[in-house]
Structures are given as structure tokens and as C-alpha cells.
Write a structure and sequence with these properties.
Distance between the termini: 18 Å
Helix content: 55-70%
Structural class: mainly alpha
Order of helices and strands: HHHHH
CATH class: Mainly Alpha
Radius of gyration: 11 Å
Largest sheet: none
Strand content: under 5%
CATH topology: 434 Repressor (Amino-terminal Domain)
Shape: globular
CATH architecture: Orthogonal Bundle
């Protein structure tokens, strides 16, 4: 499933995929694959992305109806 919330948060911070990748220590391709729903990031990477974008895990990664 595409992560449009992450992409929207990144764009609202005026960051390119490359900018975000540099801030969290991954490649631009990794950010692109997360946004496209083709890569499931680790919890540590999710937290780093949230910090870089000023969002919570719920804001960016929690899907309604997900089981805990």
C-alpha cells in the first residue's frame, strides 16, 4: 500500500526524497520504495522519518483497522 501520508508530509516540509534520505541515513531509492509501498521499513527507520518530518508514527505509518 502506498504511503501517501509520508509523501505529503515530506512535500509539506519542502523536502525532496534525497533530502529526507540524507536526514535519516538511507538512499533516495529507499524513501521512494517506502512511499510506493514496495519496502517495509524497520521501526528505527520509521521513527527517524517521523522525527525528520515532525510527525508521529500514527500520523505516517498506522493504518486504520491494523491489529496491534
Amino acid at each position: 500500500m502506498k504511503n501517501l501520508r509520508m509523501k505529503a508530509a515530506r512535500v509539506s516540509c519542502d523536502l525532496s526524497q534525497e533530502d529526507l534520505a540524507q536526514r535519516v541515513g538511507v538512499t533516495r531509492q529507499t524513501i521512494g520504495m517506502i512511499e510506493a509501498g514496495r519496502f517495509n521499513p524497520s521501526l528505527a527507520l520509521c521513527v527517524a522519518i517521523c522525527r525528520a518530518l515532525g510527525k508521529t508514527l500514527n500520523d505516517l505509518f498506522w493504518e486504520e483497522g491494523d491489529a496491534v
